[in-house]
Amino acid sequence: MPYHESVPPTRRRRTLLAAALAAVCLSAAGCGAGDVGAGAPARPGPSGSAAGTSPSAPPPPSKSAPVPERTSPSPTRSTPTAGGNSGPLSGKTVVIDPGHNPNNHLHTREINRQVDIGTTHKECDTTGTSTNSGYAEARFTLDVSHRMRTLLQQQGAKVVLTYDDDRAYGPCVDERARIGNEQRADAVVSVHADGSAVGNRGFHVILPGPVRSGAADTTKIVDPSRDLGTRIAGLFVRATGSAPSNYIGGNTGLDVRKDLGGLNLSTVPKVFIECGNMRDPKDAALLTSAGWRQKAAQGIADGIISYLNG
User: Fold this and answer.
1) Cα 2 from Cα 40, distance rounded (Å)
2) How far is residue 47's CA from residue 30's CA, in Å, rounded to a whole number?
3) 76-97: pLDDT as tens digits
4) Could you give the residue ranges of the DSSP H alpha helices within 155-289?
5) Residues sharing a CB contact under 8 Å with residue 22, sequence separation 6 or more, in sequence order
6) Catalytic annotation present for 137
7) Running DSSP on this structure, what letter comes out for residue 242?
8) Which residues lie across from 204 on neighbouring strands?
9) Which secondary structure element, helix H or strand E, spans residue 297, and what is its range?
10) Mean pLDDT score across all residues of the chain
11) Would you state the pLDDT for residue 240?
12) Exposed (0-12), middle (13-18) or buried (19+): which is 261, by Cβ within 10 Å?
């Protein structure tokens, strides 16, 4: 979702960046954790559930907005879903965290409740953003998460969604982190889309910074989360053809944050991915395309698989 600051866009260099990141992923190191993006500044947002807020509250989902296509039926509850009996990810647990909830805007009192994220208190959750046509970020995140679940199950993984359109609002950011912790997940990915200014384009992966305060202690997950996030960034480029963000992360596709409850409270490797900017018409055309969402799911899943296979 969107950010507070308006960061001036930089030159995209799409072809060179895509080629460079793809080359990293195909190298022997397999998108290993390096120093890229380590100095990226944290950008405060209004809650630990996403990256920030738009200049004005996003409109509620429009009835005429595009409806995401699903690749498989949605279970009625966000309970663990076992993968196959065999496969390269057999014995591995992946938690997918679809950002926000389509009905959050109907429960503002509940989602504005403050929760402890270790360093401070923030809102339980936020509404997320949407395209100008009313396609909600929360619908996008659910659709991509369902597609990821199918791909990961095919590899034998046990997949858990933090929620699956099975509750009126939320869950709160502290509960989202707790689900991954309780599952002792091998990897957790929180799926989002940004809501920045027109002309700001591209994806970025948000990595946890070192935090040790109150209930938050990320010291053991910073390095493995960087490995996970770097692999996802490189393979997302290869699968989608999208370039890294031209307004966050200095064209690395990576951003380090210390203000997100979903990362601060995690005790297992976890990253966020902002798949594109819903308020830019060119990015919005991608995000509302079922074909592109499948590519996005493939890129994220490929990054998780690469990380879990070492």
Assistant:
1) 17
2) 33
3) 344 455 455 589 999 999 999 9
4) 173-182, 222-240, 261-264, 281-287
5) 234, 237, 238
6) no
7) P
8) 274
9) helix 290-309
10) 81
11) 98
12) buried
Q: Tens digit of pLDDT for each residue in 126-154?
A: 999 999 999 999 999 999 999 999 999 99
Q: Position 16: which residue type?
A: L
DSSP one-letter string for 99-155: -S-TTGGG-HHHHTSEEE-SSSEEES-----B-TT--BHHHHHHHHHHHHHHHHHHT
Specify the 3-state DSSP secondary structure of 224: helix
Strand-pairing partners, residue 254, are 205
Amino acid of residue 48: G
Predicted local confidence at residue 86, as pLDDT: 83
Cis peptide before 55 (omega within 30 of 0): no
Q: Which residues of 31-41 are buried (b: 16+ CB within 10 A; e: fewer)?
A: bbbeebbeebe
Tokens 């270790």 correspond to 118
Q: What count of residues does the chain have? A: 310
pLDDT band at 185 (very low <50, low <70, confident <90, very high): very high
What does the pLDDT read at residue 13?
38
Q: In what order do the strands lie in the sheet with 270-277?
A: 158-161, 93-98, 187-194, 270-277, 204-208, 254-257
Cα(226)–Cα(242) distance, integer angstroms? 20
End-to-end CA distance of the chain: 30
Joined tokens for residue 18: 């895509």
Is-above-0.85 flag for pTM?
no
- What is the per-residue burial (b if ≥16 Cβ within 10 Å, else e) of 162-180? bbbbeeebbbbbbbbbbbb
Which of the residues 123, 137, 175, 274 is marked catalytic?
274
> Residue 123: beta bridge partners?
47, 114
List phi, psi (to 5°) of 54.
-80, 165
